[in-house]
Design goal:
Elements lengths: L9 E3 L17 E4 L8 E4 L15 E4 L4 E5 L10 E4 L17 E5 L35 E5 L4 E4 L6 E4 L6 E5 L12 E5 L5 E4 L11 E4 L6 E8 L8 E6 L5 E4 L11 E4 L6 E8 L8 E6 L5 E4 L11 E4 L6 E8 L8 E6 L15 E4 L11 E4 L5 E4 L1
Parallel strand pairs: 1-6
Antiparallel strand pairs: 2-3, 2-4, 5-6, 5-7, 8-9, 8-27, 9-10, 11-12, 12-13, 13-14, 15-16, 16-17, 17-18, 19-20, 20-21, 21-22, 23-24, 24-25, 25-26
């Protein structure tokens, strides 16, 4: 689910048909020519160059034959504010056919987003007065975010606007990522992922420092038959985190209870039908203040947000409308606990192109935050940051 590029001074470039000169560029290099259509003298590099020196403002056409995204800047030192192009790798013979006369620096990155900013988003959270048992991978009582970028890497953001790499690659092989509390019974929050090619379910135990340990298989197969695989918290009341998922074929909602060994027990039906009508399930923690975890669900046809309260019998109670519409403008939901510092679970979202800001739609990649009120409802959303584009999921 890639997000399109957005931002001031940014342009993407297409490619032109093969030109004889473009074949002179060797595999693994970025090449530029003094003439259009890959003609004239050729310059090449396979490393980032902050100052083109004698080639400054002389490139009229170029080709990217590396495996990286080439950021082509109009200013030296990879400065994005003067304008830049993000060039994906070209096939042999292709070249950028648009005249380019202002190239001053070139940088190679894994994702287009990194041409102008870090691979991870800027995330800030306040210290909660109490540990909520989820949303906190490093145990500092500040809500964290884990981000998957378009290159399949995982980034950990501890709530101080910084981020660090915790997964070097391969995470795009997972068709579901979810976390909510401690499944492995060691007092640390864990992450669960579904492998798309096999339908297997994997547990990645948290280390307590924001990193993940060696994975453990907790679902041998069959999980591709399920939608909305969602870590939920302790619905059964036995002190162990549980998982819920919707069965695609029947639209039933199933509860998979956590066990003392860090696996999942025999499933229990908690929703008889109709759950395919929901295109997002959000394990919020206790938003009603009764000590039991609760569920938000988005209704696809209306964009409404519903609250399903957890009950003392390990089921869900009658639903309450908490969002009258407009929630289909959200591409991602981040139920990471209390990030406002008042002890009540909050909700963060990342917008898609349907989001309307200042009367205009098309505002994808905005972080919108909603504070929990403690009664199951949320305050009005606040758009806080517009640079959450070009990423591939959050937990």
């Amino acid at each position: 689910m890639g997000l399109a590029l957005a931002g001031a001074g940014l342009a993407t470039v297409g490619t032109a048909p093969a030109a004889a000169g473009s074949y002179d560029c060797p595999s693994g290099y970025f090449c530029g020519w003094t003439g259009e259509s890959a003609n004239g003298s050729m310059w090449k590099t396979n490393k980032s160059v902050a100052d083109l020196g004698g080639w400054d403002n002389k490139i009229r056409s170029y080709v990217n034959r590396t495996t990286s995204v080439a950021c082509v800047y109009e200013d030296k030192n990879y400065t994005p504010w003067g304008g830049y192009w993000a060039q994906e790798p070209n096939s042999p013979g292709e070249y950028n056919g648009d005249p380019v006369a202002t190239t001053s620096s070139v940088k190679f990155v894994r994702t287009e987003r990194e041409c102008s900013q870090p691979a991870y988003p800027s995330w800030s959270s306040e210290t909660s007065p109490k540990a909520l048992g989820f949303g906190d991978l490093n145990g500092d009582r500040r809500a964290d975010v884990v981000t998957r970028d378009e290159a399949g890497r995982l980034w950990f953001s501890p709530g101080d606007t910084t981020g660090r790499l915790i997964g070097t690659g391969g995470w795009n092989a997972m068709s579901a990522l979810t976390r909510h509390g401690d499944f492995s019974r060691d007092g640390r929050e864990d992450l669960i992922a579904r492998e798309a090619s096999t339908g297997k379910l994997w547990l990645y135990p948290g280390t307590g420092t924001g990193s993940l340990g060696s994975r453990k298989l907790i679902g041998k197969s069959g999980w591709n038959a399920m939608n909305r695989v969602t870590a939920f918290g302790d619905l059964t009341g036995d002190g162990r985190s549980d998982l819920i998922a919707v069965e695609k074929a029947t639209a039933r909602l199933w509860l998979y209870p956590g066990t003392s060994t860090g696996t999942l027990g025999a499933r229990k039906l908690i929703g008889k039908s109709g759950w395919n009508a929901m295109n997002a399930l959000i394990g919020m923690g206790d938003v009603t203040g009764d000590g039991r975890p609760d569920l938000y669900a988005r209704e696809a046809s209306t964009g409404k947000l519903w609250l399903y309260p957890g009950t003392s019998t390990g089921t869900l109670g009658s639903r309450t409308l908490v969002g009258t519409g407009g929630w289909n403008a959200m591409a991602h939901f981040l139920p990471v606990g209390d990030f406002s510092g008042d002890g009540v679970p909050d909700l963060a979202t990342v917008t898609n192109e349907k989001y309307v800001l200042d009367g205009y739609p098309g505002n994808l990649g905005w972080l919108v935050t909603y504070r929990g009120r403690g009664n199951g409802f949320l305050t009005s959303g606040v758009p806080t940051h517009g640079e959450w584009w070009g990423l591939n999921g959050f937990v």
